[in-house]
Write a structure and sequence with these properties.
With 378 residues, the chain is α/β, with parallel strands linked by helices. It is built from ten helices and 13 strands. The chain has a seven-stranded parallel β-sheet, sandwiched between helices. Strands 5-1-6 form a three-stranded antiparallel β-sheet, with no helix packed on it. Strands 2-4-3 form a three-stranded mixed β-sheet, with no helix packed on it. Helix 6 runs parallel beside helix 7.
């Protein structure tokens, strides 16, 4: 594999002449957009000649820099793998951008991946890459939209083997296609109504049969449809509890045997700050979400002797598409920001980052806990 490091001047690529490593002579039209993947190869780059490169595009970052960079030279460094390179000094010493060209025998290609998937995630947003999540089998419920969609994508970008269930087939298909087009290992989608025990068990069995185990379960499914105390009937009570609480227990029950056998696993239950505030006009939802904290603590002690960890994530007001479509008004935003310490709306991917941490080995001693992601509301 060859890595071309481009170093720039202040007025060109922005790395600064004080780096003492020269500038980009002969390099023109470098667009830094982030995924560390060469979309157009110019000059003799593919042949290992790093001079005279023109029109190189990298996909991923939001900004563009280095247009018309001239007046120096590119330095090529051969490394075994761009994701773990001592020669590249951890992407240090003033590197402005990286162009990766990997050969047919590159370890990344042999594994079926593409160079830069993990590096792209880190470069794009300065967020963590967890080596322990690579090839872990992850099952996410309600993964087609909203917070669940962000969680699925986050695990995919960590090179995990991801399966997700939902009933929104079109949205699920769109997510799978988007991951494929990004050059990532696509998640596997199963249509499943998790309030049906038979469908839930069948979905888990399919994942275990196909992958041999489930390493991580994210119990994300939920429905916060508004309802008044007066409108609740025994039937609607059961419906709300079934989708927000009951299925979390039975999903955990279904994946527990494979986790216990492997003596490794992380179950992450999605709660809410709704019961802490408490929110109005969702009394049964609030009841169910409060019970998830108790469920989490009970399962953590039930499964702990087999090294299976169970934690809860409690989001606040998260800016999902559902929120935008149903409740996002100027007055709603004003009320949220008045309560939060951070005066901005919290995004689904910010919840997903906490889920990644709780799934990774970096949190190996953490279980029986509930973590709030709400911008400082509670």
């Amino acid at each position: 594999m060859r890595v071309a490091h481009f170093f720039g001047e202040e007025d060109a690529a922005g790395a600064g002449a004080e780096d003492g490593l020269g500038v980009n002579e002969g390099v023109e039209g470098v667009v830094e957009a982030g995924a560390f993947e060469v979309l157009e190869e110019g000059g003799g780059l593919a042949a290992g000649d790093d001079e005279g490169v023109e029109g190189v595009e990298l996909a991923g970052l939001a900004d563009e820099r280095g247009d018309g960079a001239e007046g120096g030279e590119a330095v090529g460094v051969d490394v075994e793998c761009a994701l773990q390179s001592e020669d590249a000094d951890g992407w240090g010493f003033g590197i402005h951008s990286l162009i990766l060209v990997h050969s047919a025998d590159c370890p990344c290609r042999r594994k079926g991946g593409r160079v830069g998937d993990n590096a792209a995630m880190s470069a794009k947003s300065n967020t963590a890459v967890y080596p322990s999540l690579e090839n872990r089998v992850v099952l996410v419920t309600g993964g087609a939209t909203g917070i669940g969609e962000a969680i699925v994508e986050a695990f995919v970008r960590q090179r995990a083997r991801v399966a997700f269930v939902d009933i929104k087939d079109d949205a699920a298909t769109d997510l799978v296609v988007r991951m494929e087009k990004a050059g990532l290992r696509a998640p596997v989608y199963f249509h499943c109504d998790v309030t049906s025990f038979a469908e839930l068990q069948r979905a888990v069995d399919q994942v275990v049969d196909g992958c041999g185990r489930v390493d991580v379960l994210v119990n994300n499914v939920g429905n916060d449809a508004r309802h008044s105390v007066e409108s609740v009937t025994p039937e609607t009570w059961d419906e709300v509890v079934a989708v927000n609480l009951k299925q979390q227990f039975f999903m955990a029950q279904a994946v527990a045997p494979s986790m216990r056998q492997a003596r490794r696993g992380s179950i992450i239950n999605m709660g809410s700050i709704a019961w802490v505030i408490p929110s109005k006009n969702v009394p049964v939802y609030v009841t169910a979400k409060s019970a998830i904290v108790g469920l989490t603590r009970a399962l953590a002690h039930e499964f702990g002797e087999d090294e299976v960890r169970v934690n809860c994530v409690m989001p606040g007001a998260i800016l999902t598409e559902r929120q935008k479509q149903l409740w996002l008004t100027e007055d709603y935003v004003r009320q949220v920001l008045a309560h939060q310490s951070l005066k901005r709306m919290i995004l689904p991917e910010e919840v997903a980052r906490l889920v990644l941490f709780l799934a990774a080995d970096d949190s190996s001693a953490i279980t029986n806990q509930s973590y709030v992601v709400d911008g400082g509301w509670v």
